[in-house]
Design goal:
heterodimer, A: 3 strands, globular, B: mainly alpha, 3-stranded antiparallel sheet
């Protein structure tokens, strides 16, 4: 499946989705996407981190540094209130769009 | 060279932000390497693979630079024709202001260095030369600041204005040169025009005035374009835009 083109424009929604069930750091987000998509989607970290920073600037997600059990500092991201709203709006639009496409091609 | 080292070199963000980005990427690389080692890969191979997985370092740095530039969205990409129009107007205003500065500055320079308004070309050159050093320094250091991606709009304006102020001595030199080539060589060397004739020369002699305006305007445009051209242009749906 050529996912690259299909993913364009939906990357933000996927990041939001990864943060719905709680805060995560960058590496965990990439793993979550890989697992949930059954290895179909792989976000390159080089693409993911600048996007996370952009969403943080837009206050759709917030970030904080925590120290893990191993003593490492990790930057974890979580959805903000406006990020949550944006996610639900995206999701609604996407469901509608997918339904229409499916209707067209079936 | 390692990914982190290359990334540091390509990032043009504030030092604090750079450190934060590097820490985050280092943390990711460590975790990825660790995960690959658990799959049975040796540490060198695992590190190499995790760095390759990051993607092209220039693209990554560019994406970070774009995200962390504090310039307003409008200035991140200005349409070329708007930018040109804006800076033509700006350059024209600057050149006019510099004309006013010139008369004040030249007299001030003369008083500071020789104790009276400069009477001849040699005195003018000496007084302007001495006073131009800090101004040129200001111009050179500000020209560098124009290109910083972390500039806010105010910082960009301040830097550009500093360049303009910094090249006042050069404008003064151009104006002096205009006097000399304006058929007033003898007067210039006799040192009379600044005291007696400068108003005549610049406000009665339209050719000289126009030449000064055009020369200084072109110089400002040249300076601006030099700063912008080294940053680059991009082609998009709306035509050619200047990358800030």
């Amino acid at each position: 499946m050529n996912t690259k083109e299909l993913l364009k424009g939906n990357t933000e929604m996927i990041i939001f989705a990864s943060l719905v069930d709680g805060p995560k750091h960058g590496y965990l987000i990439t793993q979550w996407i890989r697992t949930q998509s059954e290895d179909s989607f792989a976000f390159s970290p080089g693409m993911l981190y600048p996007l996370l920073h952009k969403l943080e600037q837009e206050e759709l997600i917030s970030a904080s540094w925590i120290t893990s059990k191993e003593g490492r500092d990790k930057k974890v991201y979580q959805l903000t209130k406006s990020g949550g709203k944006a996610y639900h709006a995206y999701k609604k639009d996407w469901m509608l769009f997918a339904e229409k496409i499916q209707h067209l091609i079936s | 060279m390692s990914f982190i080292k290359d990334l540091r070199e390509s990032l043009h963000v504030s030092p604090d932000k750079e450190q934060e980005i590097v820490n985050e990427i280092e943390q990711h690389l460590e975790e990825e390497t660790h995960a690959l080692q658990l799959q049975g890969k040796n540490s060198v191979l695992a590190k190499q693979e995790s760095e390759q997985d990051m993607g092209d370092v220039t693209d990554v740095a560019r994406a970070f630079n774009k995200t962390h530039t504090t310039l307003p969205k409008l200035l991140k990409s200005i349409h070329a024709k708007h930018a040109l129009f804006f800076f033509l107007v700006y350059a024209f205003i600057c050149s006019q202001t510099s004309l006013l500065f010139f008369f004040t500055f030249n007299t001030f320079a003369g008083f500071l260095t020789v104790g009276y308004p400069p009477y001849n070309l040699v005195e003018q050159i000496i007084s302007l030369g001495i006073l131009s050093v800090p101004f040129f320094y200001l111009a050179c250091s500000s020209a560098k600041k124009i290109r910083l991606r972390t500039n806010s709009l105010t910082e960009l304006r301040t830097a550009y204005l500093s360049v303009v102020i910094g090249i006042i001595p050069l404008n003064a030199a151009i104006l002096t040169f205009c006097n000399v080539i304006d058929g007033n060589v003898r007067d210039a060397f006799a040192g009379r025009f600044f005291v007696e004739y400068h108003m005549d020369i610049f406000f009665r002699n339209i050719d000289a005035l126009l030449m000064v305006i055009i020369t200084t305007s072109l110089f400002y445009i040249f300076l601006f374009l030099l700063a912008v051209l080294t940053t680059g242009f991009s082609k998009n749906n709306e035509g050619i835009s200047i990358k800030m």
